[in-house]
Structures are given as C-alpha cells and as structure tokens.
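pasting input
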Amino acid sequence: MRRWLLVLSTIGLAALLLVPFMPSLVYDIFVMKALCFVLFACAFNLLLGHTGILSFGHAAFFGTGAYVTGQLVKEYGVPTDLGILAGGLVAALLGAVIGALAIRRSGIYLAMITLAMSQLVYFFFLQAPFTGAEDGLQRIPRGVFLGIIDLRNDTALYYVVLAIIGAGLWVIWRTVNSPFGHVLRAIREHEPRAVSLGYPVARYKVMVFTISAGLSGIAGSLKAIIFQLAALSDVHWHTSGDVILMTLLGGMNTIFGPAVGAAIISTLGHYLDPFGGWVTVITGVVFMTCILVFRRGVLGQIEQRFQHRSEPSTSTEVHAEPDTSNSPNGA
Amino acid sequence: MPAKNAFTTIALSSAVLGIGGISSAVADDGYTDDVVRIGVLTDMSGIYSDLSGEAAVTAVEMAVEDFGGEVNGVPIEVIHGDHRNEADTGASRAREWYDSEGVDMINDLSNSGVALAVAAVADERERHAIVNSSSTVDLTNEYCSPYVTHYTYDAHSLAHGTGKSIVEDGGESWFFLTVDFAFGIGLEEQVSEVVRDAGGQVVGAARHPLDTSDFSSYALQAQASNAEIIGIASTGADAINAINALAEFGVTPDQQPAALLLWYDDIDSLGLETAQELLLTNAFYWDADEDTREFSERFYERTDRMPNMAHAGNYSSTMHYLKAIEEAGSDDSAAVSEAMREMKINDFFASDGYIRPNGRMVHDQYLWKVKSPDASEYDYDYLELVTTIPGEEAFQPLEESTCHLLDDE
C-alpha cells in the first residue's frame, strides 16, 4: 500500500510541478486558486478531523488574511512576503480570540459561536472604509517575493504559491504527527479522559484554533496576491460552508483528504461553467452521492480499501492515522 | 517499472501538447488565431441572472448574426461564462479567456466588483472589456483603461437623471431608503449632491442590509420624515420589496417614491397597480420608437421577454466593437480601441453616441414614468417618457474625471 501511495504522490507532485508548461491542458491560475483552498481545507481539518471541533466561521480567518495582506501591500507598500506573513499572523491572532471564546462550549453551540463571530468579522469588512464593500479591495500589486522573484510573472508566482502551500501542508502534517497532535486526538476521542490525565485541554484547543486560523489566513493572503483583489465572498459564510463540504468530501479522518476534496470542488466549479445555473445542482448531487457512497470521504475510502483488503471490515470506527503517520503521503 | 514508463509518457505528451497550445496562439494577418472571439461574462445562476444572464448572451449572439457572423472574412465566435457574483471567479475566468482561449472582448459584466476586477485584467492583458450592467463610476475614473468601455449607464447618469429632473418638477425634500452597500451609499451621496445643488434638501436616510424582506420599519421612518420624495437607492429584489412596503403602509400616494435604479423587469414583478407613477431613469425602453420595437420584437421571439437596457447595450456595444474591427482591419486591441473612440454610435440604442478617452460612452438618458393600469393598452406597455436627458448632462463631465489617461492631453 505504501508503495502505491508513494507512486501516486510522486505523480501528483510531478504533475503540479509541470502545470505551467501545459497551458492548453490546465490553466495555472485556476490551479493556484485550487491550491489555496487545499491549504484552507487541510488547515480547517486540524479542527474538525483531528480535534473534533466544528468551526462554522473559518471564512473569517481566510478573508482576514486576504484583506490584511491586500491593504498592507497596496496602501502601505509592504513587501509581498511580509504582507503574507502579516495576513497569517493577524488571522492567527483573531483565531486565538475567537477560539478562546468558542471553546467554552462544545458541539452545535460552539459552531454557532464561531458563525456569529465570523458574521461580525464579515460586517466589519463590509463597513470598514478601506475594503470597498461589495466592490472589493481591487488592484493589489503582486510585488516582488524575497526581493528577487518578480511575481507579475505567472509562472514565478505559481512556484512561489506551490512552495508556500507545500510548507503549510508540511506544518499540518508535522502538527498531526507530533505529541501535540496525539493529545488533540485524545481530546477528540475522549475529552474527559484527556482532562483526567492532566492535559490542559482548553489551552490545547485554543492552540490548535490559532494554528488552523493562521494557516487559513495564509491561504487567504495568497489568494489576494494571486487575484490581486480581496472580496467580500472571501469572508462570507458561503466560504465557511464550502470548506466544510471540501473536508467531508475528501475525508476528515485523513490528513490530506481535504486537499482532494478542495481539488474536486474547485474543479467542478471551474469545468462545469458551461452549464450555467446547473452548477449548483450538479455540485449538490455529487456531494449527496459521495456522502451516501463513500462516507469516509474520497481519500478516507481509498485508504480504508488498501488497509482492509484481506480482513473483513467489521469495525466502523477505524481511523487511518496510525498508518499514515509514517507514510510519506504527498499533496 | 511500468508505472515509471507510463509516467514518462504522460509527462512527454503533456509537454508536447503544451507547446502545441503556445504555437496556436501566435498572431496571423492581424487577427489572433484567425477568429474574433467574444466572451459574455455574466451571472448565470445568481441574483443578476434575470437582469442579464442568458438573455445577455442572446443579445450578443444576435449582434454577431446581424453583423453577418464574420468580420473582414474572419469568423466571429461567442462563448459565455458564469462569474457567480464573485470578483475572483470573474477575474480568473477573464484571465483564462484572454490568456489561453484567445478571447478578444468580454461583454456584459454585471456586478460592480466583478466589473472592476475584470477591467484590471483587461488593462493588464491589453484586451477589451465592455461593461453594460454595473454602475460604478470608478471604471471611468480611478481604474480607467484604454481597453475598457463603460457603455449603458452608470451611477452618475442614474443620480443626475432622476434627481435633477424631480427637483426641477418641485420635489424638493428627499428621504432615502438605501441598501447598506457601496453601490447604495454611493448612489445616495450622488443624488443628495444633485438635490442640494438644485435647491432641494435631504431630510434623512434609512439604511437596510442587502436582501431585506421586511421593510416595515423603514417604510414608517420614511413616512415620519414627511419628505415629498422617497429615493430608493437599491435595485432588484430590495427595490421591489421597498416599493411594495411603501404602498402597503400607505406612504405612497402622499409621498412619491423615486427609484434610482429600477430595471424594466422589476416593473413586471411589481405590477402596474403598485408601480404606477414611479419615476425611473433608463437608457432604453423597448417601445420608444420604430427601431427599438423592431429589435425588441426579434429579441422577444428568441427569449420570450422584452429586452432591458443592459440587453440593448450588449447588442449595441458588440455591434460597435465589430464595426471598429472592420474599420481598423485587425483585432489588435490598440487599433480597435482607437477606432471605437473615433466612430459615432448611431443605432436604435443611441443617437450620436460617442466614447470618451476615459471609456465612458456618452448618449442620451431618459426619465420614464410608470403608466397606470388603465393607461396600459397592451402587454408590456408600461412606461411613458417624461423627459430626455442629454448625454452631456447625464454623465460626469470629462474635466471632473480623475482618469490618468486624461493627463497626457
């Protein structure tokens, strides 16, 4: 099984590296957009899949990253690299605040608190004078990365985006497979027991909220640089809903399942364009089919298939982590 | 290893395909890839799909057919896409069209955020974009471009058309019901300025969120203001709900509502009973004269609806663009841009219309009044002309524009 995964991930990585050389097959800016959602969904899944916290307001972090970076780079002439970093930091800070409030409750109440907080953030960006409300923050310059790489060149931008997303995914992978990640899993599986073992559960939750928000912010920052605009749709609750959809579709009990989900949803939106108003219907049908047919999500189902080839699967609560933890699973 | 071989084959073949893609985009005879391609980027599935949407695509297709399907022997192709009211989706679609699908001009562009984003891409890629169904004046000011044309109407023409005419007719005190979005607030500010300049006064404003269904408290605020005119600074469903609420709460007969951006289709939704006496500024009405009727009836046969001003603008602007290509003898953006700005526009939509250096198409606007149900004699007989507003008065004076293209002259 591990050999197959290695082959698959090598092919995937090679394909991603080759994208700028295949303009007639796939459009690089579309791939960059999909990559932003890949990082966003994987970061979101740190909470949902690995800690068992459903946040219904993650667009707040994504959009905050986009607006902060956009404003800093456009109005204050901050270099792009620092702008992206600042976007991530501000989003992380916001994540710490919202997280600290939200984790006082659990389940549906927690989800409602995050939704309410993200609506506040939405309202802020709707009203703040610098955002241009529904017209968006337009014409953000792409600038120069690290003082040498001119990002106005789409190919250069593509590799920078790929590298940053790759680094972000590596951080997620490290987090999940660290002692910290094991505590998170303990919290997900049995919170009272984690408390009784002496773990400061609340602090762990705020911490993972912060990491997840920061990475989501970086995904948003990158999107603002790629499209040179930050718009209200980035902070809208639709985007919070989309990221949940991506995560469930790809498989929330895996590390990189949400990446697959993000790729599928972005691709559907992009290539079904000629169908006009039918896109929403088709996406709905695909989602329902996936939920009914592979309940673990696309990647979750594939992993399970490989793991339980010989043995009959009787247990419904098998988690894939023990195996993925030491397999070099690619993006 | 078979897997490795398969991979090498895939990589090689994709590289070959990639090179093929590049070479096919090389220009020939002044026409990029031997076809003039027009993309209609519009809202196919969201709130503006009824105002522009598929009918906008039909309008552009009609223009291409009426032009003869080819220009100087080069075929014309129309494709369409959905921006889903997201600026980033619109921008990425526009980039892809310009970069890898050889689109020469993008038309329609409902939603101001999308229009601004696509205008930025058009400016960068030096290809044409024609905005027909969004209102932001930034397109011809801060963000103007030699390749961007703002065609049908803008916030300035709406404000000056309706505001000025009403104050001159004696409607001096105003109250606004404004949608709390940049579009609504901008419109309110512009009309307030016009009203004050013309000697009227603004007594207050109530701001409501987008997609409000319950306007009762706003209607009562409007009533309590005792203003003669209630300015409705919103559009689509919000404007319809606001006007309905004003009628239900008995505000309407005593205080006159003025819709600042009401579409022809909205009157259909409101019904003449509620909408009668409403004043609105539109650049086009299907039943204005022989020429508009001729176009509108053909449009009706294909879409089962009468065209609104955006549809008429889509047709007229596409026609003008194609004539400019014919004149320039090439689809080279700079040459076409020059020809577009030199040639006058004379068709059912505009008479002696012309495009200013900042991209603003200047043509007459009309103030209409909605007929009462008794006065409406046949289907779709909704409006009567109050006054014609000359283009020079309706649109922002060129010297006020902050467009950087004007600095060189």
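fyi Residues 313-331 of chain A have pLDDT under 50 and may be disordered.
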